[in-house]
Amino acid sequence: MDWDGLGEETIEILRSYLGVDTTNPPGNEREGVRFLAAILEREGIASETAESGPGRGNLVARLLGDGSLGGVVLHHHIDVVYADRRYWSVDPFGAVIRDGYLYGRGALDMKSIGVLQLVALLALKRARVPLKRDLIFLATADEEAGSRFGAQWVAAERREWLAGAEYALSEFGLVDTGPRYRVPLGLIEVSEKVPLPLRLTARSAPGHGSMPWPDTAPHRLIRALGRLLAAERKLRLLPETQELFARLGGALAGGEGRGYEDLARSLEDPGFRARFFATPHYAAMVRTTFAVTRLKGSEKSNVIPPEATAEVDCRMLPGDDPEEVVAWVRRAIDDDRVEVEVTTPLKRANLSPPDTELYKALADALGRRAPGVVVAPQISVAFTDNWVFRGSGLHAYGFSPFVLAEEEWRRVHGNDERVSLENLCAGVRAYTEMLLAVAGA
Ligand SMILES: [Zn+2]
Known about the structure:
Blueprint: H1 3-18, H2 29-42, E1 47-51, E2 57-63, E3 71-77, E4 97-98, E5 101-103, H3 111-126, E6 135-140, H4 151-157, E7 165-170, E8 174-177, E9 185-192, E10 194-203, E11 207-208, H5 217-230, H6 239-251, H7 263-266, H8 270-277, H9 280-285, E12 289-296, E13 303-304, E14 307-316, H10 322-333, E15 338-342, H11 357-369, E16 374-380, H12 386-391, E17 395-398, E18 403-405, H13 406-409, E19 418-420, H14 421-439
Parallel strand pairs: 3-6, 3-7, 7-17, 8-18, 9-16
Antiparallel strand pairs: 1-2, 2-6, 4-5, 5-19, 8-9, 10-14, 10-15, 11-13, 12-14
Helix pairs in contact: 1-3, 1-14, 3-14, 11-14
The structure holds zinc ion (ZN).
Zinc ion binds at residues 77, 109-110, 143, 171.
């Protein structure tokens, strides 16, 4: 393989792809589909496209194996979140290269991974590598708004696109590095928390703001929210999370990882527990969380409204029963005049085992990418399309060969999102070699 050439090609394709504005809403993924389809066509790879709504494009292409083993779905989402130009130092859709970095919305989340998958596929096709698994390149719409027009639509309406597949690979995962670490930490996502969005509504008589009484709708709602936030839901340490912290403890420099080797026991110590929970990311990994995100009362400050509502972004751990969580919320707020509704269809978290052939190949790939890396499975606190494909019966993982310091991965959904050219060049090699190991005949 001409790795340098493939690296250059990866950078050039990603530059053009970042220039296609697929901000969701509205998504306009059709333009991204056109771009990808043209590249595949040039290489003699047939693709099929489908729109799940006006402008909401989805695409699939397949490199055939001999059918002796199940296929691997390489999926990415075409859409990106909006970028507020006022806070960027470059045009977020200008694909600027500066100081060894390529800037743009989607540089990490996740057009870059989509391009690694694409170029790896092209490399295997050109080299006429015999495959024992089909490799299925899948680009979908709408991940950033819940995937109704993307992964969920494909799983429901284009089941044949996934035919014969055993595995799925997508975001996020990474090799985390930086001064905090003694050795790099590789993360492969095996599961993710799922949202259970709640709406709380209090109702009462309306009135004049000059003559309030204790049980106006907003007052009732505020007291209910106060009780919910004060209630302590029991923490739950899943075996995968325990393993992650044991590995993290070994990777951290200095004394920072002290107590992580046996997290269950350490969390019994109030001092350790307080320190641990002071990191919101860690706190979210061991319990189902409730974030009050939207509040609505009156349209006018001197009118007591007949209704007040709050939206709560609840995120459940694998193993949580949504009905039980809702019942727990009702008990915590302890007021049957505050209505609790779930605003989307109920979901349950799912999980793929960290001992499959593919998982091992991913861990090996990270080992080649970052020598000395300690690899651990992670239950992501954020939602990805892998949840959908696990629901279709596949083992799905979040994998990326990018080596990123915290300062880099924090830019996801933030300002000046960027990826280093080194990551792109080494990343396409790592991705291609991983596919060769897992699917090469
Ligand atoms: Zn993403």
